[in-house]
Q: What sequence folds into this?
């Protein structure tokens, strides 16, 4: 059992949980900042979590959904207030509705996570701070201590699973719900370079090509929120295949961590999708996480069936080669 102590301080209005792990400090840190990993232990076994958003950066947000044994759903959100990799981060943890908006009728918790190396591996000290004794007792009465113990008991298995999150794994698509898919891959390269590769037209024309045999004659970047982008691909040397393209609007931009865009296929009446790109530094490179929201499950399944993920993997492998050549 990783949890080694739980201390409730009624004078300071804090709840402190200490947990020890037989894993290196950086491995433990990555488990908390990688949405693919934290969702495997943030909720107790009977209430597994899915992270719909996870911005490991000051000013960022996280949104998670926990589903109970009868299908009941409960949402929570984090507001990231501080982060010093790989030593500490602080968030405000709130109950939320299905949109991720905080539920102000229930108490929010200010949480600090401090990571340190030990002779046996690493240690996590999590301090939850409350605004009143009533809030502290309310959350303790709701089973937060027992739930945290059960949740943390799952971390050892995640830390031991090195292959599931290795840098040599290809891009993979994970269904987050009826309309959402997350495509994730670790790109071997610094976060600043990966961000630039998504915002420099000359670079994008060299890697964002999907399968071999295509060119990108049009690459108009959206540089400011509200701008429109336009990308067009054509087969090399013409041939029987016709070209295609996408256009959309830049909705959010927080370099070098997050960008949100709409995306619609040019010349069709297909409903536009929403793309949320998040970049997170991890051991071995940068975790690229792309959450795509479709109009419905039918659109999601139809697009996945086109081989979208394998095409993205080809592009990401090409990007890695460019970054390696420039190093």
A:
């Amino acid at each position: 059992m990783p949890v080694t102590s739980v201390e409730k301080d009624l004078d300071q209005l804090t709840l402190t949980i200490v947990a020890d792990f037989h894993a290196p400090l950086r491995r433990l840190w990555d488990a908390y900042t990688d949405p693919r990993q934290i969702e495997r232990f943030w909720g107790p076994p009977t209430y597994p979590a899915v992270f719909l958003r996870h911005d490991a950066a000051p000013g960022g947000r996280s949104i998670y959904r926990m589903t109970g044994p009868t299908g009941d759903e409960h949402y929570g959100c984090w507001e990231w207030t501080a982060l010093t990799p790989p030593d500490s981060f602080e968030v405000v943890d709130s109950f939320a509705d299905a949109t991720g908006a905080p539920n102000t009728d229930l108490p929010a918790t200010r949480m600090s996570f401090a990571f340190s190396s030990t002779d046996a591996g690493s240690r996590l000290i999590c301090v939850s701070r409350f605004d009143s004794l009533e809030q502290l007792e309310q959350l303790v009465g709701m089973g937060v201590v027992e739930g945290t113990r059960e949740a943390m008991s799952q971390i050892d298995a995640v830390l031991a699973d090195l292959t599931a999150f290795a840098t040599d794994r290809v891009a993979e698509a994970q269904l987050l719900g009826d309309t959402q898919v997350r495509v994730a891959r670790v790109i071997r390269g610094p976060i600043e370079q990966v961000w630039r590769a998504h915002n420099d037209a000359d670079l994008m024309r060299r890697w964002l090509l999907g399968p071999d045999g295509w060119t990108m004659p049009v690459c108009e970047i959206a540089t400011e929120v509200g701008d429109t982008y336009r990308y067009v691909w054509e087969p090399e040397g013409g041939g029987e295949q016709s070209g295609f393209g996408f256009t959309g609007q830049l909705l959010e931009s927080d370099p070098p961590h997050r960008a949100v865009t709409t995306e619609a296929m040019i010349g069709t009446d297909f409903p536009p999708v929403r793309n949320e790109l998040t970049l997170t530094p991890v051991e071995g490179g940068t975790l690229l996480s792309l959450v795509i929201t479709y109009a419905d499950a039918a659109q999601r399944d139809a697009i996945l069936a086109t081989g979208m993920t394998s095409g993205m993997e080809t592009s990401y492998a090409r990007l890695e080669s460019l970054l390696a050549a420039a190093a």
